[in-house]
Every structure is written in structure tokens, then in C-alpha cells.
Amino acid sequence: MDVAMPVRRWRATGKPQRTELYVRWSLYAVSLVQPLATLGMLGGAARNEADPAVLRIAAVGTVVAAALNAALFKVALPAYLGRRPRPTGWLVVSGLITYGIAFAVLLLAPALDRQGQPSFGVGIAVITTTFWVAAASLALRIREAAVVGVAAIALTGVPLVLAGLPGSSTAGALTGAAIGALAAATTCRCSAWTAAVVWELDSAREAQARLAVAEERLRFSRDLHDVLGRNLTTMALKSELAVQLSKRGRPEAVDQMTEVQRIAQESHREVRELVRGYREADLPAEVAGARSVLRAADVECETDFAMEPGTLPPRVQSVLGWVVREATTNVLRHSEAGHCAIRLRVRGGAAVLEVENDGVPLVPSPRPADGAGGHGLSGLRERLAPHGGVLDLPAVAAGSFRLTATLPLTDPAPEAPTR
């Protein structure tokens, strides 16, 4: 068995999944506290020569009640997060069994011990009520949980009175149960609320990314419409006019078609300029945009430049701007980074850009031996190659990722033709 597998799975999950997993096991831990809280109580009763059979029933009953609470937590958390209907059936069944256990212990054990103090049966009834109310509160709305909690605590007082417990002791036991149930229920609901908020933040982040993409598409389509709309309308009208003139044998039809040809060539040129302007990247603008986007995603962005990016040749700025854009996209999409560093240096007549971030999940599948990444990294290599640039993914510490782009400041000399 691979001991590191749970660690890898943990690191491979996102923040919402980690938060929910933490909350889920915290709730299970709350259920585990219930039998642990009764161990000392049952040990003290055994020293006072309590009936061993009743002690065994109380111990087994406490474990069963804790298991029912854990099962209720398991189905109540997804219901709280809106993934399934409220577990009303589980709530009723666990409540009946839990109170059946508590009442049975109260009926089998005397209300007062030999010193005239409340017996262990009273303590078990109070603890059972407290933890069941905490588990039930997660499966109900706040008002419903308050009503059910008050009713459950009041119902617990009935067997206490029937068992012969004095009124003052009964009031004290119920008050303790109410305070404990309120504290436990508040803790459970606040933990579940934290998980719900993290999921909502993650959904909002995804929605923001989709909106940004949609906005960019709308901008490009609007620019394309502005460029082609008028020209295409003019070409359609002139073509129709040329057809009519041609039918009448008028020589002006040739002039109209010549004009249509000119407009088509002009449209082609404008579209190429539009696409070129859309695909070109400006390094200072990309760095500023990356810093803004990363900070909005709660990622600390550090920049370390040996020279001002704007002083580099325009060709170098354009290519490295794409590197910054793609690297920022990778940080947001493929990591849970908390820190990102962008460094720019000049070494041996070449600009060297490094982008390094943490928060990289350690997935079980190893990275390809050649270090090839996704389509984005392949596209960057294709952009760098015509200018003599290279893209490297050097080995770094576990959980980190570094991308290094090296680009000559001058265009490489063309190769001499072979003869």
C-alpha cells in the first residue's frame, strides 16, 4: 500500500473539496466525542458497584447513538449544501432510536446513586440529547432546528421526572442539555456554512472567468462587425447594380465590379490588421493585467525586473507578453497558488522571462518525460521558435512550477540556402 497516496489525493483536490472534507470529518469527530464523554461516567458508576448489565447496555447504546449521529451528519451535510433533499427519514429514525436508548437506560438505572446524586443514567440521557440535537440541527432550517431542539430537551425531562429525579436536579440537567446542544449545534452549522461559502466563492470565480471569455468574444465580434458590416453591405449593393447593368449591356457594370474587387481587397486587409492587433500582446500591459488578475484571485504577485519591460524591442515585448498571458492562465486554472513571481533578466544577448508559482497539486500520474505541457505551452513554443526562442520547464521543489522563456533580443540570422 502506498503510504503517500492519501497525501497525493489531498493535494490533488481543490480548496472547496478540501474544506468540505475537513468539515465532514470534523462533524464525525463531534460524534466520536459522545462515547468518549461517557467513559469516565461509566467508569465511576462501575466503581460504585452499579449493575454491570446496565453498564454494558449503556455503553453499547451510547456507541449506537454516536454511529446514528455520524450517519445523520453524512446525509445532512449534502442536504445543507443543496445537493439532496433534507433527510427527514434519517432524522426521525435516528431520533426514535436515540431516545429509545436514553429512556431504556433511565428505566434500568436508578435516578439517584447511593450518595443521593444523579446517576449515570441521567448523564447519558443529557449527553444523548445534546449530540442528537446538534446532528439534527444540520438537517433542518434554523427555526425548525430551534423548535425541535426545545421539544427534544423538554421531552427528555419526562423520564427524568418519572425516574424520581428531584425537580431542581431535573431543571439543572435540562439547562445543561440546552446549553450544550446550543453550543454543539452552532459549531456544526457554522462549519457547514464555511463549506457552503467556499463552494459559492469557487462558483463565482468560475463564473467570472466565463464572463471574461464571453466579454472578449463580444468585443472581437463587435470589432469584426464594425470592420466588415459596412463593406459587405456596399459590396452587395454594387454587385446587384453590376448585375442589372450587365443585363442591360451597359459598360458601367465593369466599373462596378472593379469597385467590388477593391472593397473586397480592402476588407481583407482590414480583417488581417484586426486579427493581428488582437493576437499581438504588449508586455507591460500583460504584466499589469496578470498582477491585477492574480491579486483578484487572492494570489500574491511579485515582479522582479532587471530592466523596464517597455525598453525591450517591440518584437520581444509581443512574444513575451504572450508568455505572461499563458503562464497566468495556467496559474489560475491548474493550481491553488498563493504566490506567483514574474522575473525578467537579460543574459547573453537574450531576454529571459521566468514565471514561478506554488500550489501545484501532486497528482498520482507523473509528468511526461519530455516535459511537454498542454496545448497552451505547445502554442508558446510555436510562437518562440520562429524568433529563436525556447521554452523550458526546469525541475523545482514539489508543489511548485516554473516556466522559463528565453528569447534573443535580435532576430536570428536566416540560414544560408544549401546548394
Automatic annotation (TrEMBL):
Domain Histidine kinase/HSP90-like ATPase: 320-410
GO molecular function: kinase activity
Keywords: Kinase, Membrane, Transferase, Transmembrane, Transmembrane helix, Two-component regulatory system
Superkingdom per UniProt: Bacteria
Transmembrane region(s): 21-42, 54-77, 89-112, 118-138, 145-165
Keyword Calcium: no
Ranges for domain Signal transduction histidine kinase subgroup 3 dimerisation and phosphoacceptor: 216-283
Chain intervals for the UniProt region annotation (Disordered): 362-381
InterPro entries: HATPase_C_sf, HATPase_dom, Sensor_HK_TwoCompSys, Sig_transdc_His_kin_sub3_dim/P
UniProt-recorded name of the protein: Histidine kinase
Lineage, uppermost ranks: Bacteria, Bacillati, Actinomycetota, Actinomycetes, Kitasatosporales
